[in-house]
């Protein structure tokens, strides 16, 4: 089955292809619309993106909605992670808002929701993954993307996701957990 990957984020495309090698993932066509992410939850936004891509292409579409939820910021940026400030200010803004906070006050989690929908709106499979961690005092590492250089990995909290290899990240990350759960849901629903 050919599946449209409903994202223009090159990093997500690369990760999803690594995480779901058994699926034939096709890129989102350049003329596909960018639906407004008006959902209040990661699931609602994933469904909005998947349905838009599926209806545009006539093929099932897989969408990811993900973000970081920082407890000391009341769960922000949450579903607005990609839009709350400009991308180049994501890390500086988080660090500035957490200035003076001790380690115990820097807890956070990555959340990823995947939704696979047909053009008629039938949900084929959905999954969610979370990755608990803590926000570092400064960025470290050049691997990954987004908030990875400031997301400390438990249990030791000595390494950021930006310092992990791709294999280590996929084994533990929110997107890796969600992808494995999606594969299981697809297997159960289609076979």
Question: What features would you describe in this structure?
Answer:
This protein has helices at about 10-20, 40-55, 90-95, 165-170, 175-190; strands at about 1-5, 25, 60-70, 105-115, 125-135, 150. By secondary structure, it is of the alpha/beta class. The chain has one domain (about 1-190): Maf protein. Strands 2-1-3-4-5-6 form a six-stranded mixed beta sheet. Helix 4 (about 165-170) packs across helix 5. It starts with a strand and ends with a helix. The relative contact order is 0.15. The mean pLDDT is about 95.
Q: What is the gist of this entry?
A:
30% of the residues lie in helices and 23% in strands. By secondary structure, it is of the alpha/beta class. The two termini are 13 Å apart.
Which helices and strands, and how do they pair?
Blueprint (H helix, E strand, L loop, with lengths): L1 E4 L4 H10 L4 E4 L14 H16 L3 E10 L19 H8 L9 E11 L5 E13 L15 E2 L13 H7 L1 H17 L1
Parallel strand pairs: 1-2, 1-3
Antiparallel strand pairs: 3-4, 4-5, 5-6
Helix pairs in contact: 4-5
Oligomeric state of this protein: single chain
Largest sheet features: 6 strands, mixed
Question: H/E order of the elements?
Answer: EHEHEHEEEHH
CATH uppermost class: Alpha Beta
Distance between the termini: 13 Å
């Amino acid at each position: 089955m050919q599946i449209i990957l409903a994202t223009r984020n090159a990093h997500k495309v690369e990760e999803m292809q690594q995480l779901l090698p058994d699926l034939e993932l096709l890129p989102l066509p350049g003329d596909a619309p960018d639906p407004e992410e008006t959902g209040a939850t990661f699931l609602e936004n994933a469904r909005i993106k998947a349905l838009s891509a599926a209806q545009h292409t006539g093929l099932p579409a897989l969408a990811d909605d993900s973000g970081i939820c920082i407890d000391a910021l009341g769960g922000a940026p949450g579903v607005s992670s990609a839009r709350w400030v400009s991308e180049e200010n994501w890390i500086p803004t988080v660090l500035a808002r957490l200035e003076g906070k001790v380690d115990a006050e820097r807890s956070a989690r990555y959340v990823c929701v995947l939704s696979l929908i047909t053009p008629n709106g039938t949900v084929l499979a959905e999954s969610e993954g979370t990755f608990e961690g803590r926000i570092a005092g400064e960025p470290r590492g050049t691997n990954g993307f987004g908030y990875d250089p400031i997301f400390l990995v438990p249990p030791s909290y000595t390494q950021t996701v930006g310092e992990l290899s791709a294999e280590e990240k996929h084994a533990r990350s929110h997107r890796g957990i969600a992808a494995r759960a999606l594969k299981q849901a697809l297997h159960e629903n289609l076979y």
